[in-house]
Q: What sequence folds into this?
């Protein structure tokens, strides 16, 4: 468990291999409930390399001095990411 926002990551290692590699993160909100957007890549054993960028939004709740993940939403494709961006831009301009 992590005690600071800076320590929160999506990096995941299995048998010495970094399977999920965090590329970047943006803290969207801070506090007892924290929301972070992560950019990451997954290891593809068949090609012996990392796949394309993916994105996930995770919500954490701070309890007992530690952040615990409460929910997550993975953006499944660049097309879905663009649709989310376009929709939010439209709503914000209205």
A:
């Amino acid at each position: 468990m992590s005690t600071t926002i800076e320590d929160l990551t999506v990096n995941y290692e299995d048998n010495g291999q970094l399977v999920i590699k965090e590329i970047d993160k943006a803290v969207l909100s801070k506090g007892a409930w924290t929301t972070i957007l992560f950019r990451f890549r997954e290891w593809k054993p068949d090609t012996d390399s990392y796949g394309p960028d993916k994105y996930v939004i995770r919500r954490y709740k701070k309890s007992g001095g530690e952040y615990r993940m409460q929910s997550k939403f993975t953006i499944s494709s660049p097309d879905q990411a663009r649709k989310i961006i376009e929709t939010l831009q439209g709503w914000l301009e209205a």
Notes: Residues 5-93 form one domain. The mean pLDDT is 96. The chain is about 15% helix and 55% strand. Strands lie at 12-14, 17-29, 33-44, 49-50, 54-63, 66-75.
